[in-house]
Design a protein that fits this description.
708 residues; alpha/beta; TIM Barrel; Rossmann fold; Immunoglobulin-like; 3 domains; eight-stranded parallel sheet; six-stranded mixed sheet; 20 helices; 29 strands; 18% strand; globular; binds 1-deoxynojirimycin
Length: 708
């Protein structure tokens, strides 16, 4: 449709019909409930009104959605099609590593591929929009949803956010095989106070702008046509009624002209928050704040029309919001082609070989080797004991894999047996060590302890107050360690757990995150040396929960402590634990050993419109080929406001053959050095900077340059 036709359509619609377009219901209203989250509801839906509602949440499957769309086309008075949206977060049927695991790959291009493959399956199943990427920066492992994001770094998060959008949307959201992205949760949901889900966010504006917003902005700039407002407050105002956030920041500053949809029930929750007097007030506030679609509350449905009849201003805002929804439908090509997918496409894509291969590869790229005292890779001739319930569990795909089928998930025990049938493996798939397990472990060369947390223990509303490895798994580890010290701790987790005991006693630790449907095959390939680990820590591993929130790019203090070896009185440190992470951001081992030359700069001054190039030579000193994650960090030594002690600004992951070297260069330009200064201007300040290039955020080969 042309813009004129869309406006003509709008003009033909009644006020009630316009409001109906601004509402999202889940499938329960259509006789099939798949997943209900959040508070219950008792809307007063008029007979057949569900068929006039603008969009549907959480339903999928070609035949099912076709039937639904036929209903909309027939019963909506103007034959306006619905949009089918769902949480397809890291795979639809074939599940890939959780976003935090993808973050550990430090490979946004890979994520783009995964999002592309996800879109093929989701689109085959009739979906138009996914509620992804989740761009929420998280520095607190207590927050259950940190596994839905790609970690603690603003720059890296932004790269993943844009890659995900580009992957989903491919060569156009109107085409079969692509889906539209909905950027969430706007904004700063990951900064929930004390890591408690749904709690308020207390951030200074500068931290919000410099650290938390870049990832959403990158996703918006990559072309995402929807943004979801978050449950939390910003400046003590719920995001879904926060005019400053949605109109000033999102629309004006970031230039977003698409649809803003609330999170589930978030508009009505503003009443519970005590930020709106009642549902009518919530509806008017949300609309004035710039919220177009009310997901799963009856604020817009039941309380907007009466108010709008009395208010020209509200009627105009309704026109604007409804038009945005119609424009989105148009961009999705739904007026011409309301139905996506087919039975044939579902059959062609679900669990196809290409997606299986991708799932295995992605797990290989994301698994992170945290410790290796010569145990890995394990010889295929070894006798291996595998212990722990997680060894045979299918709960290793992530809690958002809502369309996945458990019987397709390859467990670790299945993977090892199918991929390495010649190897002698004894599986004890339970968490309480008994005599049989212990005598089995004793008789083996190596014990693989599958420990961590099942995937339903992380995700939405799964915050915890203590991120230490659970007592049952500590006990399991200690029991097997008592009879055999060659223990590989194979971690499955949706967060960086506090594992100081494992760090001390394990011979090796490999974090598989949640690797997805076929990912365990890739994990086995790493363990047996058919692949070389290259995943890195995307979110700092604390020694103790008390260190949280933490991030490598901490701000400088007036009383710093460098190289903590014990408590320093009247300095910024704890009496009982160091300031740094157990495993810091960017850290990860390989079966190769990489060394770095000193950093060389092409010049020691950077002109405002110029560039300087920082170069290192990276050498693979090992005997195996491997990929090394080369990371560029920069520090603004003095600023008009306190600056982070270093920030990631670039990366590359070259494949380096054993014994060979590669030269890696990064260009540094003024725009990479910008931040919100004392006057809240986004600028780079002239002065001294330091630059490091290395294999983790602790790398120490810094050199200086000046911006003039
Ligand atoms: C609530 C979650 O916060 C959000 O991430 C999700 O997309 C919606 N529910 C829809 O399921």
């Amino acid at each position: 449709m042309t813009d004129v036709q869309l406006k003509e359509l709008l003009a033909e619609m009644s006020l009630g019909e316009k409001i109906e377009q601004m509402i999202q219901f889940h499938g329960g209203f259509y006789g099939d409930v798949k997943l209900i989250t959040g508070p219950g509801h008792d809307y007063s839906v008029k007979p057949d009104q569900q068929w006039r509602i603008g969009t549907v949440l959480g339903e999928a499957g070609y035949e099912h959605l076709k039937k639904l769309q036929d209903g909309f086309m027939e019963k909506q008075p103007h034959h306006i099609p619905s949009i089918f949206m769902a949480d397809v977060i890291h795979g639809y049927k074939t599940i890939y590593p959780v976003p935090l695991g993808q973050g550990a790959s430090f490979d946004p291009e890979l994520t783009k591929e995964l999002a592309g493959a996800t879109a093929k399956e989701a689109s085959a199943a009739g979906l138009h929009v996914t509620f992804s990427p989740m761009c929420d920066l998280s520095r607190d492992a207590r927050w259950g949803r940190c596994m839905e994001g790609t970690g603690e770094d603003p720059w890296l998060n932004a790269r993943f956010a844009e890659a995900t959008v580009l992957g989903y949307q491919g060569d156009g959201i109107e085409k079969q095989g692509n889906i539209a992205a909905c950027v969430k949760h706007f904004a700063a949901y990951g900064a929930a106070t004390a890591g408690k889900d749904y709690s308020g966010v207390e951030l200074c504006e500068r931290t919000l702008l410099d650290d938390y917003l870049p990832s959403y902005e990158a996703a918006v700039k990559a072309g995402a046509p929807l943004v979801m407002s978050a449950f939390n407050t910003i400046n003590r105002i719920p995001c879904s009624t926060n005019k400053w956030l949605m109109r000033k920041i999102l629309r004006e500053k970031m230039g977003f002209d698409g649809v803003v949809i609330s999170d589930y029930g978030a508009v009505q929750e503003t009443v519970v928050h005590s930020a709106s007097y009642d549902k009518a007030d919530a509806a008017a506030k949300a609309l004035r704040a710039g919220l177009d679609i009310d997901m799963m509350s009856d604020c817009y449905l039941s309380y907007l029309e009466e108010q709008a009849k009395e208010s020209e201003e509200l009627r105009q805002l309704i026109d604007e919001s409804c038009l945005r929804v119609l424009e989105l439908k148009n961009k999705l090509g739904l007026f011409d082609n309301p139905i996506r997918g087919s039975k044939e496409l579902e059959e062609a894509y679900f669990y196809c070989d290409a997606h299986k291969e991708l799932s295995v590869r992605a797990a290989r790229e994301s698994a992170t080797l945290l410790k290796n005292d010569g145990l890995l890779p394990i010889s295929k001739n070894s006798k291996i004991a595998v212990v722990g319930k997680l060894a045979t569990s299918t709960n290793i795909v992530g809690s958002w894999a809502i369309f996945a089928e458990a019987d397709k998930t390859v467990t670790f025990a299945d993977a090892i047996k199918s991929r390495y049938p010649e190897t002698e493996v004894f599986v004890y798939p339970y968490d309480e060590a008994d005599e049989k397990m212990l005598s089995g472990c004793k008789a083996c060369d190596v014990v693989i302890a599958c420990i961590g947390e099942e995937d339903f223990k992380t995700g939405e509303s799964k915050s915890i107050s203590d991120v230490t490895l659970c007592p049952e798994h500590q006990a399991l580890f200690n029991a097997v360690y008592g009879v055999n010290q060659n223990v590989l701790s194979l971690l499955y987790a949706g967060r960086p757990l506090a594992i100081p005991m494992l760090a001390e006693k394990s011979k090796a630790i490999l974090d598989a995150w949640y690797p997805g449907t076929f990912g365990n095959i890739g994990i086995c390939e790493l363990i047996f040396g058919d692949a070389n680990p290259c995943g890195r820590v995307p979110m700092s591993f604390p020694h103790t929960t008390g260190q949280l929130p933490m991030h490598y790019s901490a701000f400088t203090t007036g009383r710093p402590v460098e190289n903590w070896t014990g408590y320093v009185p009247f300095a910024s440190n704890y009496m009982d634990v160091t300031n740094v992470a157990l495993y810091p951001f960017g850290f990860g081992l390989s079966y190769s050993e990489f060394t770095y030359s000193p950093v060389e700069l092409s010049a020691d001054t950077l002109q405002k419109d110029g560039k300087i190039t920082a170069t290192v030579t990276v050498t693979n000193k090992g005997t195996r080929d491997g990929k090394e994650l080369v990371q560029l960090y920069i520090r603004d030594v003095k600023g008009s406001v306190i600056r982070p002690c270093r920030e990631l600004k670039g990366l590359t992951k070259p494949f380096i053959k054993a014994g060979e070297s590669v030269t890696v260069s990064f260009d540094i330009t003024e725009d990479m050095l910008r931040f919100h200064n004392e006057d809240m201007e986004f600028v780079a300040e002239p002065g001294e900077f330091m630059v490091w290039i290395g294999g983790s955020s602790l790398t120490q080969n810094g050199v200086n340059f000046r911006l003039i």
